[in-house]
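Researcher: Here's a chain I'd like modeled. Treat it as a single chain, no partners, no ligands.
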Amino acid sequence: MKLGVVCVHYHAASLAVRALDAIRRDAASSGLDCRAVIIDNGSTTAEAGELRTSGVKILELSDNPGYAGGVNRGAAELLDSVDVLIAMNPDVVVQQGCLKQLVDEIESGTAVAGPRFFWDRVGGYQLPPTEACGRIEELVRALAKRGPFWTDLARRRWRRHAYRHWRSEKPIPSYDLSGALMAISTEAWRKVGPFDEGYRLYFEETDWLQRCRRLGLPARFVGGAHAIHLYAQSTPTEPRAQRWFAESQERFRRRCYGRSFVALLKRLAGAPDAATMGPAERLDPSAPWPRESADWIEISPAVQGFPAAALRLMGGAQEPVLSEALWGQMAPGPYYLRAAHEGGAEVSKAWVLKSDDVAPSDD
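Model: Modeled as a single isolated chain. Structure tokens:
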């Protein structure tokens, strides 16, 4: 089975070169025939020179059509010569066996498959699946800002959704895959069509997966396929990212739910934000985690506590809250931590840490 890899980059040349190196190593070790193309949505002269060292074909798109447009151009380049498309961000590093697991799932009849993403290292914090789609889910998330009852309800619903993915050992049905890396059969790509280029950044894969669902094409989360996603390492270089997120979110909601429902969500979002952390204390990120019989640590930049990355505590190990490497790559700002039991019940205490402090030391 032949793979076609489309890596879309915007001022992230070093990450793209690293990503493609990992792809080639994994493909070679698994005996997979792999072709790749880098979509260059923006580079300095130095970055363009660095990209050329990858030995991969480069398509320079001076108009920067966004992630959706980049994937579409790459797919058009590769579609007739491959069986599986891999659409990916430059800040993803696949681990050994990842591609084989995804390809095996596609060969079994799945239309699109996504891996388990880790934030910093395999066995460390897992990144969350995309939040579930649907009117009820949207309403609950909007109401999460109206007070503790709604915040707790929304967090419990989100936790059930996330834990279903995080606990899975075998592939499970899921249309809530991350667009950071998806494996798509070329047959499914032709049936569903290309990404909607009206989404300049964000929601393009969510929209595509919902179209896939409506056609009855199966999608799977493949927990045995591991990749590291160096989260939010490339989008900060795009000054329009926040505006594009808001525009894409509204486009997706209008398409899926209609204008009246979007207006309702806006009214709810305009209400005073009553979500609070509750009783909390400052936590040293280099200190061992105060277990309190918890099974999971959850960390989120949102005061509501979701979506969150999570670390599963194994046995009685006294692990630090965050590794120095992870602390160093986090964007500045507050992060909110909660602990939960295997069944989903929360430990009563919550913690807060700030990533603009001095990084923890190994001394």
